[in-house]
Each structure stands twice: as C-alpha cells, then as structure tokens.
Design goal:
About 25% of the residues lie in helices and about 30% in strands. With about 240 residues, it is an alpha/beta fold.
Amino acid sequence: MFAALGRTHVRVESSLVVAVLSTGSEIRGLGTELANGECHDANAAMIVADLTRCGADVHLEPAVADDVDACRAALARCADAADVIVTTGGISAGTEEVVRLALADQGVDFVSVAVRPGKPQACGRFGGTPIVCLPGNPVSALISYELFVRPVVVAALRNPQAERTMRTVRAQGQTPPASAIPRVMLGVVDGDDATIIRSHSVGALAHANCLIVIPPSDGGLGPPDEYPAWMLDSVASTL
C-alpha cells in the first residue's frame, strides 16, 4: 500500500511499555505454594491483564521483599525496560515502607488523596522515568489504578475503544454511611440497579463489574439514590 502511494518512508510509533512491580515480603508469584502469612500477587495479575487489554506492552518485574536495596535494584531494572513504572505497596505513612524509603531521594511526591479507599498515593520520576505508586491492598490498588493510571495509559495509546463506559445506576440495599470525602466502591450492576459491595477483601473483586462513585455527604439528608459508575471488565478472570 505504501509503495502504491509513492511513500519511501513511514513513521512507526512503538507501543507504550509499562513496568509493574509489587512489593512486600509476603508476596509470592502465582503458582507458588504459600507459607503462613504469605499471599499471591493479585495486584500484578489485575494490573498486567488490564494494561494488556488497553494495548500496552508490559514488563512484569518479580515482586520484591521489604528490602530497600532490592527495591531500588528492581526499580532500576524497570526504568531501563519501560516508559512508565507502576508499583503497589510500601507507600503508607509507616517508617518501614519500602517504596517510600527507596524513593526518598528521588523527588517523588507522597501524598494523601481525598478519596476512599486509596488515600496514600505517590508519583514522580525515578531516574527520569515516570513512576506512579499505588497502595498494596488489592481493592485499593485496583481503584487507584482505575483513577490515576488507566486513563493516562489509554490516552497515551490513543485507544478510545479502551475507555470505560460511564453510566448512572440506582443503589439498592444499604448505602454507605456519611463521609466528608468521596468514596469509590466496588459494585454489581444488574440492569439500571446496582448493589454496593462494602467489603475491601480480595473476594469482593470476584463479584464486582463496576466502580460506583459516592459523593461526600454530611449525613443530614443521606446519600442520593443514584450514583455515577463506570463499568469494568471481569476482574475475577485475572485472579
């Protein structure tokens, strides 16, 4: 086709490469037998699966323990291999948070975002490579990824087909109590109705097919019956 058009050169753009790194001494790879206190790397499985659906190339770095030097070495490998780094875990306010310590001299901003779950977040650059650091709890990690990472990836890939479908749903059953900050919660949509999932366990992810945005409320009039929501691909298929 290009020859028929008389073109001798064409511009080719490489796909966005995203490195994914989970942290925590308790994290083990999929298929690994677990000892007491250990868990499989659900965060990487969810994020890698969705990045692939969006059209990104993924560099999956093996999970690292709570060791600052090992974390820095893993981040360096990610920076060499990818255009963007996404980490999970190790960013809370504690004094032994491995990602926070590993990035202490990198000018990365660690902040508390006014949203639940997922208040602790971080972003900046590691060795010149953009980095976004998400919480370690799987529900918080998924919601944070959907809020702060996925829209940027979809825009960078120029892939509007991967954009989430937004809709308004009617909440059924017990709604969450009043809160001064917005909440983004797992939900199950059936027609125009939605059930809010109030659990933050990994098991809750297996049932969710949407994220429901609950606006701030002072508790005076109670929350509204209708909420904005965006539809998810099947999370259960990645766990």
